[in-house]
Sequence to fold (316 residues):
Amino acid sequence: MGLVSIGIVMLVGGVGYRWIEGWSWSDCFYMTVITVSTVGFGEIHELSGAGRILTILLIFIGVGLMAYCLTRLVELLFQRSLSNVLGRRTMMKKIEKLTQHTIICGYGRTGARVVLELQAAGKSFVVIEENEDIIKRLNEQNIPHIAGDSTEEETLNAANIGQADSLVAALDSDPENLFLTLTASGLSDHLRVIVRVHNPDNTRKFKKAGASRVVSPISTGAVQIAQHITRPSIVDRVELVTREKSISLQVFEHLVGEESGMLEKTLAEARVRQTLGGMVIAIKHADGHTAFDPGPDTRLQLGDILIAIRQPENGD
Fold:
């Protein structure tokens, strides 16, 4: 609005000088500019009485418009800066209060997909990213994030790594992810570090560095393609179930503790399906061994973790 008003004043001034004084168009607009901007230059030609009245009007109008435009510009910049500062401060306070959350390092294709899945599951998370263009996108989408290098301890501490339960390493290269894994494992001994590895041959290195899980899109994709070729009927059936939103299955764990009524009982005696409302597909024993598809005569020991599936209530 201010720029339009200034443009109108410039046009009126130029036409006015042309009509009153009969100067060339360049002289008319030049005189209008130095008058409206109040730069203090002298008159380029001697003015008539009507020309001086026009000049006085242009000075008053020009000063008023310039003051208005500068005021609006300062207000706009101040409001934007204040909004950014307050928004950033609010976000950092929320991040400081996070517990049992996931830290996602790198907002590329993998990181963005993980964010979508966590949002759908209602799981709290924070993204660490240092690319300025991506940070702008995170701000626009109101995604909780920290701008910085995720391999730095200071940045990980800002993400409240001490209270996090998992970290996803999805940086651009394996060396960066390896260094991140070492740093994160050193800052939190209970943290689950899940790494996206570019070269499947590096899996063993990540395990030694403290990674809980190593995911290779190349290997996973190759296995899936092979299954489509060797066992198409099974793969098609799995895809049919996962695509059917009305048939959603939830995987959950149940610890057999000292107070558990299942302790020292077989699966059949413990009536697991009736008690937990799900079907046991594996048992993770205290010694680290995992038994898949356990039979009904399998006896439950202290520290066993039952891995089961069930259909969520109300379709959730």
